[in-house]
Write a structure and sequence with these properties.
This protein has six helices and no strands. By secondary structure, it is mostly helical. It is elongated, with a radius of gyration of 25 Å. The two termini are 33 Å apart.
Length: 196
């Protein structure tokens, strides 16, 4: 009996696992995903407005060279492809409510995370290359009559901006979004393990 009492006291002294509050976790995940979906919706809207602006430029400005039109078309096609990927991701994260079926939502979150990793990987570099090519072709005629100094400044600022976005902003944005997603996925996995 003495051994049983000792065993019981040792068992009771064991640290207890943190139990997650279901409501708190689901509220936090829902809040985080609403933030990400709002950003995606804003990106889709701004890309759509940019596309409309380029369409206006292409239709109402007269250019002498077909190269300029080719540059604009390359930019527009690239934007359409990028918007299609953002719409697909938006549909993945907003098609169902986390509170209805957290297990399915966890799977959707993992799919979303995988899609975003692909977008931020080699697809982003392809996007930058296509946009750069389109801008180069567009600037070919637009800057033809500009001074050499202005051309150097225009090309230099464009290259600097693309480099800044690619190597600085992209990294910070990817890291912040991945941390949010990892935190939400981890919370849902811990919640799921709590009930298994």
């Amino acid at each position: 009996m003495k051994d049983f009492d000792h065993l019981m006291s040792v068992w009771q002294e064991q640290p207890k696992k943190d139990q997650l509050s279901v409501d708190d976790v689901l509220k936090q995940v829902k809040k985080g995903m609403n933030s990400i979906s709002r950003k995606l919706l804003w990106n889709i809207t701004s890309m759509g407005l940019s596309f409309a602006g380029l369409l206006v430029v292409m239709l109402f400005f007269v250019f002498n060279s077909w190269v300029t039109y080719l540059g604009i078309v390359i930019i527009m096609v690239t934007m359409i492809l990028y918007v299609m990927m953002m719409v697909r991701d938006y549909r993945i994260i907003s098609k169902q409510d986390v509170t209805i079926n957290p297990a399915d939502y966890l799977q959707d979150l993992k799919v979303y995370q995988k899609n975003r990793a692909a977008v931020y990987g080699w697809l982003y570099y392809l996007y930058v290359i296509l946009i750069s090519t389109g801008l180069l072709l567009y600037f070919f005629e637009v800057l033809q009559s500009a001074s050499a100094t202005f051309k150097v400044v225009a090309y230099g600022l464009t290259i600097a901006w693309l480099m800044f976005c690619t190597f600085y902003l992209r990294g910070r944005f990817v890291k912040a979004e991945q941390e949010k997603l990892n935190l939400m996925i981890d919370r849902l996995i811990r919640l799921q393990n709590q009930f298994d």
